[in-house]
Design a protein that fits this description.
single chain; two-stranded antiparallel ribbon
Length: 334
């Protein structure tokens, strides 16, 4: 019988779990397979996706619930004010690292720009913020991180159970041992820190080797970020954000709304908001207030800013990525 790619990946998946389970038993490590909610999860996804229940039991018997993960997710960097958050990412070391990464991967960045319409500086900035251009992709086993949050973090348990399900599916699809990949405390993976659902939907193969390797292949990581932006509606050649001035108190009603641009410039002017760079009246924008050390600063965020925020929904993250991209572009002199 001819072995298809899917059946081959499935056999690799089951064998890898079996070998991992034997290793875990030998070390005396106790997992979570006997917890009622875990047993229910295994029954659900094994029936839904034809995954081996026996193999999943072996896998979850070696899962380690980690308190450090619960501590980390309780104190996200996005809780900081903008002036403190910016200092984390707009550093000289990160800028120089980005320039070096750009030089080393210029061909892949150019290819991704042609294919997806996303400029190199934006892709480099994302990879710089996420993992320091691949230098820090995370030290937690993904299966441990996702399981900890899926079964011991009630606030977002449903979200992380879906991500755990996607992780197991991508391991089968890609022929990966689910006990091996490492990532962040939230289960984000590889150079671009994709969650499993993002990997399955947006990871891309740029070099044509039929693999989507976001861990060790910068070309695939570059293409994956570009594809993510493209699918979410990045408009090639269009601006991202502009500083703004405010007057009166009518603008207060605009703050704290969805980041999706919903007000035309002509409407914003009537509420006391003026872009410091002239914009067409019909341009849609949203007003941001960022906390500088000397007081609030205001920005008008356009459609492409909203696209950046789909990568991470924090306006601080989107602004840091945008400002890092501008600094990289300025330093290259292009």
């Amino acid at each position: 019988m001819r072995l298809t790619k899917r059946s081959a990946s499935f056999r690799i998946f089951v064998l890898a779990i079996a070998l991992s389970g034997l290793s875990a038993s030998a070390s005396g490590q106790e997992g979570i397979a006997d917890r009622p909610e875990v047993r229910a999860f295994i029954r659900e996804i094994s029936g839904k996706h034809r995954l081996s229940g026996e193999a999943l039991n072996r896998l979850f018997r070696q899962v380690v619930i980690q308190d450090k993960i619960l501590e980390a997710i309780a104190r996200p960097a996005e809780a900081k004010p903008w002036h403190a958050y910016r200092k984390i990412f707009l550093t000289e070391a990160r800028i120089q690292g980005g320039l070096t990464f750009w030089d080393r991967n210029g061909a892949a960045l150019s290819k991704a720009r042609i294919r997806f319409g996303v400029p190199p500086e934006m892709i480099v900035a994302i990879l710089g913020i996420e993992t320091g251009y691949g230098q820090n992709t995370g030290n937690y086993r993904v299966v441990d991180a996702l399981s900890t949050l899926a079964f011991d973090y009630p606030k977002r348990a449903e979200f992380f159970r879906h991500e755990l399900e996607d992780f197991l599916l991508l391991c089968r699809e890609e022929g990966i041992d689910p006990a091996l990949p490492k990532g962040s405390y939230a289960g984000a993976m590889g150079m671009p820190q994709f969650m499993p659902s993002s990997y399955r939907h947006y990871a891309a193969d740029l070099d044509g080797d039929q693999r989507r390797d976001i861990w060790g292949n910068p070309a695939d990581a570059i293409a994956s970020v570009a594809n993510y932006f493209s699918v979410h509606g990045w408009q090639s050649g269009e601006p991202v954000a502009f500083p703004a001035s405010v007057r009166g108190d009518g603008f207060f009603r605009l703050l704290g709304n969805d980041l999706k641009p919903s007000h035309r410039i002509v409407e914003l002017r009537k509420l006391g908001v003026e872009a410091r760079t002239p914009l067409p009246d019909q341009t849609r924008a949203t007003l941001l207030e960022l906390g500088e050390e000397e007081g609030p600063a205001y920005w008008l965020a356009l459609h492409n800013f909203y696209v950046i925020s789909r990568y991470n929904h924090s306006p601080l993250y989107a602004m840091a990525a945008y400002q890092l991209s501008r600094e990289l572009l300025a330093r290259r002199g292009t």
